Amino acid sequence: MESVYIAGIVLAVVGALNWGLVGLFKFDLVAAVTGSKFGEVNALSRTVYILVLVAGVIAAASIPEIA
Question: Is pLDDT at 3 greater than 70 in this prediction?
Answer without folding.
Answer: yes
